[in-house]
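One-letter codes give the sequence; backbone shape is given numerically. An example follows:

. . .
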Amino acid sequence: MTSIRNAAVAVLLAAGLGLAVTPAAQADTPAGGPAGTPAPVGAADLAQARGAVQDQAVLDRLGHFFAREGVPPTRRLTIGAAEEARAASAAAPRLTGDTVPVYTLDADFVAGSPGAPVAKAEYTASKAVSADGQVASVWTVKQGETWRVVNIASGGDETDYAAVAAGGGGGTAFREPQLNAWYVLRAGRVLPLDDEARRSVGEAGVTLAAYQRLVHQRYGDKLPGSAYDRAGKGGGYQPDAGGSETAVASGGGGALPAVTAGAALGATALVGAGLARRRRAGARRG
């Protein structure tokens, strides 16, 4: 079991690659699909997203990301530019596994809107590895008719948890970002994929209806337009010792990661995330 680690993560691509982002394109939800199932991202869109990651400029940027071991370009390294360039070339980044849609808890589901899916696709992720074994996740979004790379983050949670979900019986992997909890929606139940999710819903998981009640209790007063939102309170979310929940200041050193787009649910997780900090865990089976 891989221990949770704090990483210097989520570096927006510079030099013309950093872009404002919008949710990933989605196909129409299949008629008669299981309740709560998110709309899928089509195979053609996933192929185009993959193609964007394979662009040589992106691979070069990945080389520098690995050479810097995730340290953002805004921070100085102990090595010089020439040494960084050599390390970037030696990193020889390559893609591995599938490009997958990344689903995040949907504000409409939290609010209890009829027919709302449990999560929505916000971007796609492709896993990249370096010659010395470093791992990164490359994020892409669709802008107009074009898929563009917007972010590189250390680790491979996005693709790892999707693979665990697929290998464990199928379903849709999704993330509750306020807790950094990863789940899979399978046969009408929300099942845990990581320790944060196990603390949230237990080892056996909960029904979709029970999960909706749970997240409504947690975040129903923090949706867009709420007093919490209007007050501009940013940060994560953390159960206190008595079992109730409190907000965590985004710049603090609490047990939970900062929310990259503010605390109110509904904001696309990447918007304004110049240097987003997130705690990562290796995917592990439930």
User: Anything to note?
Assistant: The longest strand covers residues 94-105. The two ends are 11 Å apart (CA to CA). Residues 1-22, 27-32, 234-286 have pLDDT under 50 and may be disordered.
